[in-house]
Amino acid sequence: MKTAIPAPLLLIVAVLSLSSCETMQSAADIATVIGQSTGTITQSQAESIRKTTKAVARSAEEFTPEQEYYIGRTVGAVVLTKYRAYDNSRANAYTNVLGQTLAQASDLPSTFGGYHFLILDSDEINAFATPSGLVFVTRGLLRCCRSEDALAAVLAHEVGHVQLRHGMQAIEKARVTEALTTIAAESAKTLGSREVAELTRTFEGAITDITNTMINKGYARSQEYEADHAALTILKRVGYDPGGLTEMLTVMKRNLKPGGVDFAKTHPSPDDRIVRIRAGSADAAAVRPPASRQARFQQAMERI
Amino acid sequence: MQRFFKVLAAACCFLMLAGQAGSADTGKTLSVQVKEGQMRSTPSFLGALVAKPSYGDRVVVVEDRGAWKKVSARGVQGWMHTSSLTTKNIVLKAGAANVQTSATGGEIALAGKGFSEEVEKQYKNQNRNVDFTWVDRMERFRVSPEEMQAFLKQGQVVPAEGGAR
Hints:
The complex is a heterodimer of chains A (304) and B (165). Chain A contains 15 helices and three strands. With 304 residues, chain A is mainly α. The radius of gyration of chain A is 23 Å and the shape is elongated. Chain B is an alpha+beta fold and 165 residues long. Chain B has a single domain, classed as SH3 type barrels. Chain B is built from five helices and nine strands; from the N terminus they run αββββββββαβααα. In chain B, strand 8, helix 2 and strand 9 form a beta-alpha-beta unit. The longest helix of chain B has 17 residues, at 2-18. Chain B starts with a helix and ends in an 11-residue tail after the last helix. Mean pLDDT of chain B is 82; it is low at 12-19 and 95-105. At the A-B interface, helix 2, helix 4, helix 5, strand 1 and helix 9 of A face helix 1, strand 9, helix 3, helix 4 and helix 5 of B.
């Protein structure tokens, strides 16, 4: 019996492995039809390829904003099992006015439940942004900010992660497909307890994928640079000095402890980030905010 | 060759994302896909709020300007950002008579389905150590457009033209 894989089959597999886009499905359909008509693949092989294509062609973008919101809420709650909230209403209120204003100028101003910010009571230099816009920053990271423009850069970077859906992209591909398939199957009828249990298991898996990436492994370096780039755009649109990002990174470089489990582990070094930012021609001159802006920043961050 | 496929893949992903922001949506009916929509007087993140359409509300596009659509709903007109709109018809109550026949492809989205309040409840039951108190408190940190305007003015922050695209 011949065991070699026919060339058209390889071509189809190659096409499928390159993308999860819907359009790829039609490309694969055409290739499958050709394979079948030339007799290089059988009817049953063709059927199974069509099924696989359907399963492959699902991406995290297919989750509705409402579903993304529920994922984000739970990711946020898991972050809060590892870090304590910093219960300082003045600092949190200030961070929210600034952060929510920046988010409005992003390319994703509207998420299902909106953007909300919270300071974490930790000396680590760390920040997390969940899908749909819950943003957490540690006191340690706030101490790297010498001005409102620098704090705006920190918050805009996190908004960038939300806008670019980096959290959702951390969900394993197989799990995305599994979830979307289950959701599609149950969409026309009321959920039974078995389906809810099944969906909850997939949900838990997705939460673990995201929190593992966000808290332990860190996003890809390229994603961090993308978030920096998004931050610069947001800062310019709102009217903050993009140099605030460089200013913050310069202080962060001094404050980071080698071997730390925070940004020292999960982010590219401040130096590497500064080099990339300068390549994007951000102003490297010292940030000079007006006195009224600097005064309110210092007041809000007094006890940080 | 691989580069070609990468470009093709990127292009089609872009088109998928832009599906919510097609440039020729004038005359189309779209649905609000966020809890509380923001209809503004100008196509800018600084535009004053004229209405807050709810999740699932239908709006008709009367003008199209990049990421902003001028829409009309219940006799009110204003600008909404495309990130708050979808071409899908959002059905708030599952089990409606037309759901069975129209639920093909991506034309319809059922609110409260999939990862939903029900799944969160089940998750909470199984993970009693995960406390949502602060997440709920965070969601109550809300800032109005007027507060944002006043904040920018007080800090002498002068926005660039255009805003969110």
